Amino acid sequence: MENKFTFQELHAIVAALRSEHGCPWDRAQTHATLKENTIEEAYEVNQAVDDLQHTGDPSHLKEELGDLLLQIMLHSQIAEESGEFTVEDVIDGIAKKMIHRHPHVFGGKTYENPDEQKEDWERLKGRESGHQYEGPSQELRQVPASFPALIRGQKVMKKALKYDLVSGEDEVILKDMLQSVVDLQVAMSKPEEEADRSGYLGRSLMSILKLAAKYRINAEAALTEAVNAFIEDCDK
User: Which residue, 201, 112, 203, 211, is CA-closest to 170?
Assistant: First the structure.
């Protein structure tokens, strides 16, 4: 049987890369410089999942998960060197969080239906450090600004619907969508210096995201499928 490296050995490898006699590139990294890499690796994991559905070969997904794990290890090593936290702290934190948020698994609690479990999840999440909100608007601001705009917009709309900050009535949503398109059409007919075309387009997109949020349609995935279909149609 092939000998496999352990988590502890990976930890030691990353520490060596960051050491005085390690790799200059790894030594130069900071939390900030790793941001783009981490996002790219996460997207490559998603692509590997799509590839797996087509090829049935999990080797690509395994490789990309390793690349994403490396980003976590590098962030943790940088934090350990500066006295912020260690990778063991990261593991301990997520383990405690999962136990806390799953009382039906680890605490013997039972739920009558999935909606009850989801509501309890939100309550438990709200009690955790860093998730205390003074009001709906503050909760909306907690959606990370670094998210892709489509994902962020849908999450914001989901919370807005939850707190009745916007109407969830189909008729109102569709009317808003149609009005936003009319406003955009008017803006397009005006000279460029007089028309806030970007702003009107943004409002049109937000009206669509409201519909996606209500019906739990993954807008990012829906757009990706539409783009892929368009490309395939262009090949015909």
Answer: 211
The single-letter code of the amino acid at 158 is K
- In tens, the pLDDT along 32-67 reads 999 999 999 999 999 999 999 999 999 999 999 999
The contacts of residue 18 (CB under 8 Å, 6+ apart) are 26, 27, 74, 77, 78, 81
**pTM more than 0.85:** no
Q: Quote the crossing angle between the two packed helices 149-162 and 197-214, to the nearest 10°.
A: 60
Q: Tell me the C-alpha to C-alpha distance, in Å, between residue 192 and each of 110, 197, 198.
A: 59, 8, 11
Determine the residue type at 200: Y
Torsion of CA 218, 223, 224, 228, to 10 degrees: 140
Give the count of alpha carbons within 13 A of 229, CB side only.
Answer: 6
